[in-house]
Give the backbone structure.
Amino acid sequence: MNIIIPIKQVPETSNVKMDPETGTMIREGLVSIINPLDLFAIELGIVLQEEAGGSTTVLSMGPPKAAEALREAMAMGCTDGILLSDRKFAGSDTWATSYALAQAIRKNGDFDLVICGERATDGDTGQVGPGIAAWLDLPVATYVSRLVENRPGSLVVERLVEDGYETLEVEKPCVLTVVKEAAYPRLPTLRGKQRARKTELPVWGAVDIDADPAALGLKGSPTRVVKINTPKVTRSGDIRTAGDPAELEAAVDDLVAYLEKIDLV
Ligand SMILES: Cc1cc2nc3c(=O)[nH]c(=O)nc-3n(C[C@H](O)[C@H](O)[C@H](O)COP(=O)(O)OP(=O)(O)OC[C@H]3O[C@@H](n4cnc5c(N)ncnc54)[C@H](O)[C@@H]3O)c2cc1C
């Protein structure tokens, strides 16, 4: 079974700061990590490949630095990696990103399954997985929480829906986007890290994937960001300090009266 796992390198969320003047993310000095939700896709891919044989290829579109994310996934157990890196990809929105990834998947040859994370913690749209499926004209199951059965021509999956779970049978080849419940990611091993360091990591540009230049980068991106702003969180209120038990009691009485007024007790 040949499995492709698109992964994105993102800034470590706890460090993200926005520039209040420009409204853009301050990327300088940020530590980059594998999109945390992609670890579940990686793990599910490795488990399936260990059971059924074949390959697990991690694929990332990003700057040369994204090779680190690919090598980390290979240290976890993925057999191969491909980096899509070219200035022509810069400025791509989810439409152009999913197009480039789909072209790379086509170019890489036969595959049975594409597993994406649920969403990226920075862009946060959750559109790239379904986008890849649309470009490749494949069935897609989103929010997959469990792989029930790997049948010869199909997969039976359970997916998270608003009021519970639903079970679906999806014909292979197909695209899945997975949620946290789908797998429990393993840690990279020392042997895995050594193997990942030695494995060749092809770097493909726009020409290598036979991409239409007009469909890439800012030119190929129909999304226009009109305005970005960070909402200011302000808290006002009645701050009470209780110096003695009587003041404390009065403050508690006032609080209970307020909660009753707004129907909370
Ligand atoms: C006009 C515009 C310009 C932009 N310019 C840039 C830019 O120059 N540089 C930049 O980094 N971002 C840019 N972005 C953001 C970029 O479009 C998105 O981050 C990217 O398309 C992925 O979307 P997302 O983060 O919402 O991913 P989601 O759809 O939330 O991700 C879902 C899953 O898709 C897969 N995936 C997503 N992105 C990638 C990837 N790059 N490689 C492999 N797998 C992936 C992963 O499995 C991930 O879990 C731009 C956005 C807009 C609207």
Remarks:
- The chain has two domains: 2-215, 235-265.
- The pocket of flavin-adenine dinucleotide is lined by residues 6-8, 35, 37-38, 41, 59-62, 90-94, 97, 101, 116-117, 119-120, 122-129, 221, 223, 225 (CB under 6 Å).
